[in-house]
Amino acid sequence: MSKWLNVKNLLAVRLDNIGDVVMTGPALRAIKENLPETKITMLLSPGGASAAPLLPWIDEVIAWKSLWQDLGDLPFDPARELELVEKLREHAFDGAIIFTSFSQDPHVPGYVCYLAGIPLRAGESKEFGGSVLTHELKSVPDNVHQVERNLRLIESLGFKVRDRSLKIFIDEEASLSAHEKLGSMGIRVDEGYVVIHPGASASARRYPVDRFAVIAQELTRKGIHVVVTGSDRERLLVEEIANAAPEVKTLVGVTSLSEYAAVLKMAKAVICNNTLPMHLSDALRVPVVVLFSGTDEESAWGPRDTRALLMRKPTPCHPCYLFKCPIGQPCLDIPAHEVSKAVLRIIS
Question: Same domain for 21 and 126?
């Protein structure tokens, strides 16, 4: 029998964005189904930690801004890194599973886990890392879906997977609160509404906001209620749409992630970029129209479990994996009226 099936105190590592954490859900669920008494602690980025309430298989969270995922914001501070080692050592984990994307390497977090005294360490890698990992799985092609990448890793450790679909859970309090917030905006849930989310963490993945505004105008003219959402840092994008389409309602920075998921769950459809609402819609089985830029492979990140229309113009630079596009985003040069038609098709 695999040593992993005797683990009682497991560390799962996914130091990335919220959507990446959501996509670990099927793997975490499978681990919990195989080992219901095992405690699962997740090492997450401060932003990614907000996804934990949606994933009931997580028992504890350690939030940490990691040096190996940093884009240059952290100062030179070796003592801080030793603090993480000590923090993990105090938990006395007997196994660590390091979830990564196709472009990330598990050996640095694996070495941290080694120094913390964690005897079993697993990850998927394209690179040679010596004996940093006790279980190293050879990487699959880059276009394999991230959920499958995660599941393949745990299956190699001996865990059986019953359900490969993406799911999240919203508690009743968050659902009621979301309903009340929509009501205070004058949105009647029983009349239906469409959500437009114009933001994305990378500018290369953002469909032009002026075209989102045209979509909002076209939908409201057809009598469809539209709610435009965003985080605090996306407020200007939301305001630009609202100024151009005054009949829309806006929801910016006033919901928890669970409440926001509840808002999406009650929607007739969601329109967004390749970003968090796409993954949440997939997990909630809400129809979604995605302006999916050429930065990434649709097969690796796109929805699998809901009705979805992914829109992108073919370009020779796809996939570019860039955060900023140097040539004006030709992959997202899609007329707004084509997107509006797609929305009408998907909600009919």
Answer: yes
Range of the domain at 132: 3-156
Confirm whether pTM is higher than 0.90: yes
Residues 92 and 224 in one domain: no
Rg (CA), the chain: 21
Question: Which residues pair with residue 9 across a beta bridge?
Answer: 39
pLDDT at 73: 86
Q: Is residue 161 part of a domain?
A: no
Q: Which residues are within 8 A (CB) of 76 and not within 5 positions of it... i.e. 6 or more apart? A: none
Q: Is residue 165 part of a domain?
A: no
Torsion of CA 118, 119, 125, 128, to 10 degrees: 110
In contact, 267 and 224? CB cutoff 8 Å: no
Is 26 a member of any domain? yes
Q: Which SS3 state, helix, strand or coil, does residue 114 take? A: helix
Residue 139 burial (CB count, 10 A) = 18
Q: How many CA atoms lie within 13 A of 223 on its CB side?
A: 1
Joined together, the tokens standing for residue 239 give 């305001």
CA distance 274 to 84: 32
Q: What is the pLDDT of residues 243-284, one digit of tens each?
A: 999 999 999 999 999 999 999 999 999 999 999 999 999 999
Write b or e for each residue in 278-317: b if 16 or more Cβ atoms lie within 10 A of its Cβ, otherwise e. bbbbbbbebbbbbbbbbbbbbebbbbeebbbbbbbeebee
**Cα separations (Å) of 185 from 198, 227, 269?**
19, 10, 19
Residue type, 195: V
CA 52 and chain centroid, separation: 12
